[in-house]
Design a protein that fits this description.
Elements: E1 3-4, E2 12-15, H1 24-46, H2 50-63, H3 70-82, H4 88-103, H5 113-124, E3 128-132, H6 137-145, E4 158-160, H7 170-180, E5 187-191, H8 194-202, E6 206-210, H9 214-221, E7 228-229, E8 235-236
Parallel strand pairs: 1-8, 2-3, 2-5, 3-4, 5-6, 6-7
């Protein structure tokens, strides 16, 4: 189906990554396993770097274990990764490790061809593009900077992560709109997660549910709030 946006005109588009612009399998079968394998050694090598030490202190604080040694912090991070916890210090450390993988050519960032084509067209149409993902901003830039389609970072005007707030919280979308200086009703959020879309809609945004998988389509079919598309090809901004 086509997503025909009513007035007011969409001036900026904010997109999720995992399951939306990029295959969820890339995250779970490439990025996460790489971080699980490489993060312990990377932390041991860089634990004394001031910025890394500060992140490890953030882990200790969030875990409620201020006296945890480095090995205990590594164990906490492993537990968080197993639970897919959206902890900001974990996401930041994962991003540092993924940088190593991207730069060494161990993998490239997956982005669907239809997403690339639509993002380019919207950019050419002078619509501002932004990313909002649970992955850290540096990790977002790496995925698009080292994508299967080359460096796509030039398409985006900015990036948001959980530093601005949880993705299922209405306040996060209000904060993004305030940061962008745009009226919420002129912003469009793309995601494959209903709770995120619900939060954006409650903040006054326009929304679109990108349902690429059978499971996501089944969930999307039950909703009566958000337009549903199978790919970016089906999104038509009027």
């Amino acid at each position: 189906m086509k997503l025909e946006q009513p007035s007011p005109e969409v001036v900026a588009i904010v997109t999720d990554i995992e399951g939306t612009t990029s295959d969820i399998a890339f995250v779970h079968e490439v990025l996460f396993p790489y971080a699980q394998q490489q993060l312990p050694l990377w932390i041991r090598r860089h634990a004394d770097d001031p910025d890394v030490a500060a992140l490890l202190d953030d882990v200790r604080a969030e875990a409620g274990e201020p006296r945890a040694d480095t090995e205990r912090v590594i164990a906490i991070l492993a537990q968080w990764m197993d639970a897919d916890r959206k902890a900001t210090p974990l996401k930041t450390l994962q991003g540092r490790v993924w940088q190593q993988g991207y730069e060494s050519g161990d993998f490239t960032g997956h982005v669907y061809p239809d997403a690339v084509a639509a993002l380019q067209a919207w950019s050419d149409d002078r619509r501002a593009l932004f990313v909002y993902s649970s992955g850290s901003v540096p990790a977002q830039k790496l995925l698009f900077g080292y994508s299967d389609h080359g460096d796509l970072t030039g398409l985006f005007s900015g990036y948001f992560d959980t530093g601005i707030g949880p993705k299922k919280a209405i306040a996060s979308y209000r904060a993004i709109a305030e940061t962008l200086g745009e009226a919420p009703e002129q912003l469009l959020f793309l995601s494959d997660v209903g709770d995120e879309l619900d939060a954006a809609a409650a903040a006054g945004w326009q929304t679109c549910w990108v349902a690429r998988s059978d499971d996501t389509r089944d969930k999307a079919a039950l909703n009566e709030t958000h337009p549903v598309v199978a790919s970016f090809d089906d999104i038509e901004l009027v």
